[in-house]
């Protein structure tokens, strides 16, 4: 199943790149899946990590995911899929609201996604500094800090994982002590 999810994600994200870079987009879902696999052996959760952006960014439907990967994988992906008709702030607030009551598996998936994003941001921040924020739709660092620190508050139950500690440390390095 994981091999099928890798192939599906590669096809869905074919030709896409990370914002402001020439890094193929597929690197992000692959890294997200590696992070998740370091916290769980749950094959369906790892598949959801690989597929977490295909609905939001590649036009795949929930029905397609369910038909190919089953209802649980589809539900995990849909729980993390943002509604792009809403503003950046509304989407991020909805994610934080979801995390308030999300099950542990959803928190692991979100940690994998956000840690991958934050690693990329931290690396590029070291190279280009504050200009990093210009590549995003939301250009205010303070808003990104609000969101990433909000995620950190809501995933504290995962603090026993070294990857969660890495997330907390990267928040401090990129955003400072808020």
Describe the structure in your own words:
The N and C termini lie far apart (41 Å). With 178 residues, the chain is mostly helical. Helix 1 packs parallel to helix 3 and helix 3 crosses helix 6. Helices cover 68% and strands 0% of the residues. The chain is built from ten helices and no strands. The chain has a single domain, classed as Hypothetical protein af1432. The radius of gyration is 15 Å and the shape is globular.
Q: What is the percent of helical residues? A: 55-70%
CATH topology call: Hypothetical protein af1432
Separation, N- and C-terminal Cα atoms:
41 Å
CATH architecture: Orthogonal Bundle
**Largest sheet composition:** none
Q: What is the level 1 CATH name? A: Mainly Alpha
Q: What are the secondary-structure elements, in order, as H or E?
A: HHHHHHHHHH
Strand content: under 5%
Q: Which homologous superfamily in CATH is the superfamily?
A: Hypothetical protein af1432
Structural class: mainly alpha
Low-confidence stretches: none
Question: How many β strands by DSSP?
Answer: 0
Shape: globular
Number of domain units? 1
Domain HD/PDEase: 21-127
Organism: Hungatella effluvii
InterPro entries: HD/PDEase_dom, MESH1
Protein name: HD domain-containing protein
Could you write a compact summary of the structure shown?
The protein has helices at residues 2-12, 27-37, 43-51, 54-58, 62-69, 71-80, 88-101, 104-128, 141-154, 162-175. The protein is mostly helical.
Question: What are its keywords?
Answer:
178 residues, mainly alpha, guanosine-3',5'-bis(diphosphate) 3'-diphosphatase activity, Hypothetical protein af1432
């Amino acid at each position: 199943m994981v091999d099928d999810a890798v192939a599906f994600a590669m096809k869905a994200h074919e030709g896409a790149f990370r914002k402001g870079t020439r890094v193929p987009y597929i690197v992000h879902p692959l890294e997200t899946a590696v992070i998740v696999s370091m916290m769980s052996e749950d094959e369906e959760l790892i598949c959801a990590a690989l597929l977490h952006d295909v609905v939001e960014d590649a036009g795949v439907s929930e029905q397609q995911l369910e038909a190919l990967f089953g209802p649980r994988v589809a539900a995990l992906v849909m729980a993390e899929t943002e509604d792009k008709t809403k503003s950046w702030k509304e989407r991020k607030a909805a994610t934080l609201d979801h995390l308030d009551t999300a099950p542990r598996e959803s928190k692991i998936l979100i940690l994998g996604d956000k840690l991958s994003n934050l690693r990329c941001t931290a690396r590029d921040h070291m190279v280009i500094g504050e200009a990093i924020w210009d590549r995003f739709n939301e250009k205010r660092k303070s808003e990104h800090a609000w969101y990433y620190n909000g995620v950190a508050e809501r995933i504290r139950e995962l603090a026993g994982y070294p990857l969660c500690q890495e997330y907390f440390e990267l928040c401090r390095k990129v955003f400072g002590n808020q």
